[in-house]
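Follow-up to my earlier ticket, as requested here are the two runs.
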Amino acid sequence: MLVSHRKKFIYTKTVKTAGTSVECYFEKYCMPEGDWAFMHNRTEHVSHTGIIGQRGKNARQNEWYNHMKAIDIKNKIGDKIWNDYFKFCVIRNPFDRLVSLYFHRNAADKTTGATEESTVQHFRNWFEGTLSAHNRKAYTINGKLCLDYFIRFEDLATGIEFVCERLGLPFDAEKIPQLKTAKRDKSVPISDLFTPDMRSVVEKAYEAEIREFGYGFPA
């Protein structure tokens, strides 16, 4: 998560949405000018210029950490800053996000040369034990949307460009970090991974996200 006093914005970080890539793109504006250097993991940073929540091992042991709830950020910075600053995050189709989460968590268990059939069954077995990666508390307070803008993962560069224009920041698509992209096997279509019953479970569990942002089952 980010708070920039220099540029007056707040970024809440969602799970499995290219959140670290977007965080890295904007975090330089939360530090004194010239102090920033790229780091995949980062310790908590708090200064007169802004706040960067820690990401990496034991992040939640800090006052400020990467996947904080919106209400916790608001309570810590106060109503005036929360209301005055431009607030944004990244959203993603829940079906696609669950598949991404699966490959992220199971990368170490996947054997080289796994067949399409084994991937499908492995995913379905994993799915029975998880419906995590809920992101609503990063962009809602008391169940209501509380941010000003939502970057869509499916059109990441366009969303980042909009935020930059809104904040008067330079935009360079080539400088958007491409992080955590190597773990996913895209040879199996998402539509092949979900049974009709699994699809119904996701539609019920993420009904609000699907309704609010117009997502559906990938073709």
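Run two:
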Amino acid sequence: MSDQNNINWYRQIFIRLKKIKLLPKLFILSTSLILLVLIIVSGTIYYFQKQMLLRQAEEKALSLAQTLAYTSSIAILLDDYSTLQLLIDSMIDNPDVSSIAILDTNGMVIAADRPELRGHLYQDSLTVRALASPTVILQKLPKVEDQEIWDTAVPIFELDQRIGTARIKYSVEDTYAGLLNTIVLIGIFAILISLILSYYFARSISHPIKQVVDLANAYGKGDLDATIPIEREDEIGHLVRSLNKLSKDLKQMIEEKISNESLIMIGEFAAYIIHDLKNPLSGIHLLADGMHRRIEEKNPLKKYSTEILLATQKLEDFIGKTLDIARWTTIDKKPIQINELIEEEVKAIQYKSIPVRTNYDPVIPDIQGDSQLLSMAVRNLLSNAIEAIPEQGTISVETRRINQQTIIKIADTGTGIDPDRLGKIFRPFFSMKTQGHGLGLAMVKKAVILHQGKIEVESEKGIGSQFTIILPDLAG
């Protein structure tokens, strides 16, 4: 039962950890990694610095003991106690030296910094080991008032014969404590810096991801105009830019689908018009025309008959264009010289006061297509360009041949199109003109689609618009 409780406890902790948001997770993870690296680096520095300080202390203690052993050898042979005492007194003035003694080969004190120790027999472990060893003996004693005490025993030789042992107790300050304090201060400062850097690092990742989540939610609610402004060049920046492009492409696909479905709907609606409206409307038009002819010009009814006649003509024109879209399901492919086709349409509108600038690519070969449909498409785009220019302006027509595709560009310096309307202009019945029926651009798009091409539009309010038709090479 206890094991099951432990499992449930761990499971609850795991579930709670999973519920933690990304920013705290990244902050904890990055901070933990920085602290781990900091602990490893600090520990390594402390260890090697401690070893270096230890060697320095050993070398200093040995240097003093060896100096004493070298200078006292002759005085020991001559049994010159006063010279030995002078040597000891000169070295005991060093504040780091706590005691000095010179022993004979049996461990008895010959001279010391404390004269009362003369004749005292040393039997401690260091002395016993030193008397038996031909090399230097060094040991660290327990701390005294935060000072380290090094007890050093150096053998004294004269002509390869041991004549005594020099003993020095040398104290140094606890350099380890200072080193540890320094590392602790550096560590605290580094921890504060790491906390700040970890927060900004975690936020630099979590904040864009949160924006991406909000963007995805906006897409799910149908707001395909939502975007995230970002200038990063890393993977997150690429992700956000891809999502922004995705929304634009998705919106375009949806608009195209709606437009295509509208064209299909027109076909179905046109069939209804053919059977139920065309014949009655033709009859109304004939009766209105006959009535209009019989009414005298001075008769007040003449004005109303004119309105009826114009209305029926407008309805017949609308039905005719609708039927044209409905009838177009295939194209009559024949070789076309596209530059000549466009030039004919340009000449047809040059009675207008608006100048048309042309720039034709002379190397465009004949393409397979339906000249009637393509002429209609160019004519409609030129007519729209003329209507978009209120007073003065220009229209430019350009053809290019790129990657086995024929490009037709028709631009104007007119009023431009509102950004929120750009995605709807190819929909049937969508018109920005008070007198328009909204079928012109729908007919242009269907003509382009039947040629397996595509049409693009760029526009800026108050600057003008440019329509680009891209036609691939069709097999004959």
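The only thing I checked on run two: The mean pLDDT is 75. Let me know what else you need.
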